[in-house]
Design brief:
single chain; 208 residues; mainly alpha; two-stranded antiparallel ribbon; 4 strands; globular; disordered N terminus
Length: 208
C-alpha cells in the first residue's frame, strides 16, 4: 500500500520486532503485510512446549501490542480486532490447507469502510476512514487488498503444522514453503512420515 499522506489517521509503524512476530522468530513480511503478519501472530497457539498466549486477550499484553502502533490500550474495539484476526487466519487455513483441517469453522466475512482519496498527482487510493483500533483494522484489510492486486498475498501463510500455525512469509522462488521453520516443524513432520513408513507391514522386508 502506498505511503499514507497528510490527514490520514495517526497510526504509528510498529518496530520490525514487535511482539507478534518477534516471539516466534519468523522472517517478517515486507511493507504493510508486516502489520497483517504481526496481527495474525498475536493469536494463541498450542505447542508441544506449552501454549503460547493470545496477546490480545490480556489487557497488559494487548496494551503493549497496540502501543507499538500508537494506540492506547484502553481503546475500544479489541474484540473486533480479534474477530478480524481470526477470520483472516481461517481464510488462510482454507486457502492453503483445505476446509477439512479446521472443520466447522468457515471463514467469516468482515466489513469495514475506508475512504477513497484523489492525490495531487492524480493518484486515487484507499485510506483508513477511522481512528484508533478501527483504523488499524482498515489498514490491515487495505494491506491485504493491495497484496492481492500485486499477487503477493499468497506468500503470507500459516505453518502447515496444526500445532504451530505461525504466520510466516514464504520467500521461496516458487511459493512452495509450508513450514515456518523447516528445522523444527518440517523435520518433525518428516520424522513422523518416516516412522509411519517403517511401521507398515512389509515395508522393511528384503527385496531379494
Amino acid at each position: 500500500m502506498e505511503k499514507r499522506g497528510q490527514g490520514d489517521p495517526d497510526i504509528g509503524a510498529a518496530p520490525v520486532g514487535s511482539d507478534g512476530n518477534d516471539r516466534f522468530g519468523v522472517a517478517v513480511a515486507p511493507g504493510e503485510l508486516r502489520i497483517v503478519q504481526d496481527l495474525l501472530n498475536t493469536a494463541s497457539i498450542g505447542r508441544a512446549g506449552g501454549d503460547v498466549p493470545d496477546l490480545l486477550d490480556a489487557p497488559d499484553s494487548a496494551a503493549r501490542w497496540l502501543g507499538a502502533y500508537g494506540i492506547t490500550g484502553d481503546s475500544p474495539g479489541v474484540s473486533d480486532l480479534r474477530t478480524l484476526r481470526d477470520a483472516i487466519r481461517r481464510s488462510l487455513v482454507e486457502r492453503d490447507h483445505g476446509p477439512d483441517r479446521d472443520a466447522g469453522a468457515r471463514p467469516a466475512a468482515v466489513e469495514s469502510v475506508a475512504r477513497v482519496r484523489l492525490e495531487a498527482d492524480g493518484t486515487v487510493r484507499f485510506v483508513p476512514g477511522s481512528v484508533g483500533i478501527p483504523a488499524l483494522g482498515q489498514r490491515v484489510l487495505l494491506a491485504i487488498y493491495d497484496a492481492q492486486l500485486a499477487g503477493t498475498w499468497r506468500r503470507l501463510k500459516l505453518c502447515r503444522n496444526p500445532l504451530c500455525a505461525v504466520a510466516f512469509w514464504d520467500s521461496s522462488r516458487n511459493t512452495s514453503g509450508v513450514w515456518h521453520d523447516v528445522r523444527t516443524c518440517g523435520n518433525v513432520a518428516n520424522l513422523r512420515k518416516s516412522r509411519a513408513r517403517r511401521g507398515r507391514p512389509g515395508q522393511n522386508l528384503p527385496t531379494s
